[in-house]
Write a structure and sequence with these properties.
Elements (H helix, E strand, L loop, with lengths): L1 H9 L8 E7 L14 H11 L3 E5 L8 H10 L6 E3 L2 H4 L10 H12 L2 H7 L2 E4 L12 H20 L5 E3 L13 H11 L4 E6 H7 L3 H8 L3 E6 L14 H10 L5 E4 L7 H13 L6
Parallel strand pairs: 1-2, 1-8, 2-3, 3-4, 4-5, 5-6, 6-7, 7-8
Helix pairs in contact: 5-7, 10-11
Length: 288
């Protein structure tokens, strides 16, 4: 309580042009960089008091979410919901766009489509993370890419009339064998050819895959629909060796006006990580 009062007083003094959010899960999850404490309302209150503008919600099954209650909860804490994470459908249920079993691919597509009402309501981007899957045994890379493109084109078309955008996240090679780099993401965008389909860039993955992070951000330019921050060790920014001022300046040079969303380990604990992230990012010398 004491620390929340101190930070409410400190943070308005700092640079506040970049909109900041942080990832919270609406249910228990194996994914360690999305916090679920069992007290969503309490966590929303905390991040709002720290000065965050939004919350990115990781939701496994949108049909279990009561949109009105969620809306009231985030509105009570004056937060926006810039993006919805969907990776738990892969992590907890094994759904993927590239599974050799057609019924699993179809369930994955239906699951992403079922996020559209929630995304429309909150003007949130739907994240295509690990639900894209991996190239499974006895499946060629070409076949997996064809399934991936088909699924994304289908979901993008369904989302388009609701004004909803989808963002695929290039994810490092240790987590998936499909779309690791920004360049591969850009190639996928060309092949899908839907204007409501773009990329989510994540500094943790970029540090592992990109030769030059700033150049890759510039290359993706207006196709960046959402942005995740974590330091090199996946702790909060400032706890590792990445240059956030330089990366965020490249992002704003590209005309990005979306959220910078913290997706990092809740270490040493969630409250400390959430506080250190916003203090560090708000203290950076960024271009306007
Ligand atoms: C999700 O945003 C992410 O970055 C992945 O590492 C999930 O495993
Ligand atoms: Mn991420």
């Amino acid at each position: 309580m004491g620390s929340a009062i101190v930070f409410q007083w400190l943070i308005p003094e700092m640079e506040a042009s970049v909109k900041l959010s942080i990832v919270l899960s609406t249910q228990q999850t194996h994914f360690q960089a999305a916090t679920f404490s069992g007290d969503l309302d309490g966590d929303l209150k905390k991040i709002s008091m720290l000065g965050y503008n939004g919350v990115e919600l990781a939701i496994r099954e949108p049909n279990l979410v009561d949109i009105d209650s969620l809306d009231q909860m985030v509105a009570r804490h004056q937060l926006q919901v810039p993006a919805i994470g969907t990776g738990q459908a892969w992590g907890e249920e094994g759904l993927s766009f590239t599974d050799p079993d057609a019924s699993i691919r179809s369930k994955a597509i239906q699951r992403i489509k079922s996020h559209i009402p929630l995304a429309e309501h909150f003007h949130a981007v739907i994240i295509i993370g690990l639900i894209r899957g991996i190239v499974k045994t006895n499946v060629s890379q070409t076949q997996a890419m064809d399934w991936l493109i088909e699924a994304i084109a289908d979901c993008s078309q369904a989302a388009r009339s609701y004004g909803v955008r989808l963002a695929l996240e290039p994810i490092n090679r240790y987590e998936t064998t499909l779309i690791n780099s920004a360049a591969q993401g850009m190639e996928l965008i060309q092949r899908v050819g839907a204007d409501n389909f773009g990329l989510l860039l994540d500094t943790f993955h970029m540090n592992l895959e990109e030769a030059n992070i700033e150049e890759s951000i510039s290359h993706c330019n207006k196709h960046v629909f959402h942005f995740h921050v974590a330091d090199s060790n996946r702790w909060y920014p400032g706890a590792g060796h990445l240059n956030f001022a330089s990366m965020l300046n490249s992002l704003s040079d590209s005309g990005y006006q979306g959220y910078v969303s913290g997706e990092f380990f809740p270490k040493p604990d969630f409250d400390t990580a959430a506080r250190e992230n916003i203090l560090y990012l708000r203290g950076l010398d960024l271009k306007d």
